[in-house]
Amino acid sequence: MLKTGDKAPYFEGKDQDGKLVRLSDFAGKKLVLYFYPKDSTPGCTAEACDLRDNYERFLAAGYSILGVSKDSEASHRKFIERYLLPFPLISDKETVILQAYEAWGPKKFMGKETIGTLRKTYVIDENGIITDIITKVDTKAHTAQILK
User: Fold this and answer.
1) Which candidate, 52, 60, 32, places its Cα nearest to that of 145?
2) Dihedral of the CA atoms 13, 56, 52, 72 (nearest 10)?
3) Average pLDDT of span 24-35
4) Which residues are catalytic?
5) Can you name the residues that pair with 114 across neighbouring β-strands?
6) pLDDT tens per residue, range 87-107
7) Which of 23, 38, 116, 141 is the most buried (most CB within 10 A)?
8) Which of 93, 85, 100 is nearest to 23 (CA)?
9) Which long-range contacts (CB under 8 A, 24 or more apart) does 5-8 make?
10) Cβ-count burial of 107 within 10 angstroms (0-12 exposed, 13-18 middle, 19+ buried)?
11) Please, are residues 3 and 9 in contact by the beta-carbon 8 Å criterion?
12) Do 120 and 136 touch, CB atoms closer than 8 A?
């Protein structure tokens, strides 16, 4: 189980434009790495828009933001364009990053238990160390949870 104080697992994946993004791209910077189930669904849209609406606050505090889901690059591109998201979204169709960050597993949806993406956020410092893990995400007030 990952916990605060652990080194963030290495990852690489393609963003909405097919550009390779790696954890090492954020060396020396703080990173908000958030995992969400699906583009353009109500909760995921609320979460992304809350981060978008507070993006300048994140930049002022020295953070980059990166979202990850199983959705395709094309789906991410549409989501970004529709909601004017200022940060990249990584496509993880094979769930490699999701599994490395323990954001893939059993969950309940409408009374049924399924396996899927768990909504979870990791705050990673300039040295690649996890400083916070948010597992009970408030999609409408996620910024307040991160920038306490």
Assistant:
1) 32
2) -10
3) 97
4) 44
5) 107
6) 999 999 999 999 999 999 998
7) 23
8) 100
9) 5/129, 5/130, 6/129, 6/130, 7/128, 7/129, 7/130, 8/33, 8/122, 8/124, 8/128, 8/129, 8/130
10) middle
11) no
12) no
Q: What are the distances in angstroms from CA 13 to CA 4, 10, 135, 142?
A: 23, 11, 22, 24
The reported pLDDT for the residue numbered 48 is: 98
CATH topology of domain 12-146: Glutaredoxin (3.40.30)
Cα separation, 95 vs 84, whole angstroms: 25
The full set of domain ranges for the chain reads 12-146
pLDDT, tens only, 44-72? 999 999 999 999 999 999 999 999 999 99
DSSP 95: -
